[in-house]
Amino acid sequence: MIKLRLKRFGKKRAACYRIVAINSRDRRDGRPLEELGFYDPIKDETRLKVDAIVKRLKDGAQPSDTVRRILEKANVFEQVKA
Q1: pLDDT digits (tens, 9 = 90+) for 25-74
Q2: Which CATH class, in words, describes the domain spanning 2-81?
Q3: pLDDT value of residue 28
Q4: Is the torsion defined by CA of 59, 3, 38, 30 positive or negative?
Q5: Segments making up each domain of the chain, as ranges
Q6: Helix (H), strand (E) at residue 45
Q7: Which of 7, 8, 52, 5 lies closest to 24, judged by CA?
Q8: Pairing of strands 34-40, 14-23
Q9: For the chain: N or C, fewer Cβ within 10 A?
């Protein structure tokens, strides 16, 4: 199963995350199938490749809880329904 989840990178106590599509059995920081965006919780900055995310969701990828909240803020699920 393909999951959309966060991949951690950055310094200690200053983590940033990449939103990636990855096999659900792979480790957190393993090689992703595709990088779909960026999330910085400290600066509250988000950059998303919306068209690629919509394609993955239509193919059946399941977002993690945190990624789901990020995508809801960006109104990505409305584009999936359309």
Answers
A1: 998 888 999 999 999 999 999 999 999 999 999 999 999 999 999 999 99
A2: alpha beta
A3: 83
A4: negative
A5: 2-81
A6: strand 45-48
A7: 5
A8: antiparallel
A9: C
